[in-house]
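Hi, here's the filled form for the chain we discussed.

Project: internal
Contact: R.S.
Residues: 165
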Amino acid sequence: MRRISAFVTIAFLAGLIVGFFVRSSAIGTLLRRNTHAADLAAIEKLHQEDVRVTLLQDPKGLIDVWDEDGVRLGPGRPAVVGKKAIQADNEKFQAVYPDLKVLKYAPDIREVQIVDGWAIEWGYTEATYKMSAKDNPVSLPRTQGMRVLKRQSDGSWKFALVGLK
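And the returned structure, exactly as it came back:
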């Protein structure tokens, strides 16, 4: 009788332990899914803000979307490294073209991969702009690009690297 009681007790404890690990794993998976969904929502918010500030050519907004150590790469141009350097580059461009009007800015993000507080995305962008009120609109063809995003301490995301082909 004692043998059966000991066996039942051991089986019961083993069941509790297995159940705990299975449940913990299921809860961990659920938490990862919720975190992933929250990250995707925050990244989408960054995408929307990027479009908004680009269309408005909002000087502050064009800087606020960048991480402090952000890097902007463009074809035929040297890399612009750091949020302050990006701001200075933007200011110089806006001084040369004060009447620039962005008529269309349409990123088409095809894939986003999120790992450990970083996101890598690629896609295409179409844009149309006028350098001044008297100039004809210029349309840029569909341009390939890749962006690396960094999760901020508040859960928001900012651009860490943007490169266009």
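Let me know if anything looks off before we file it.
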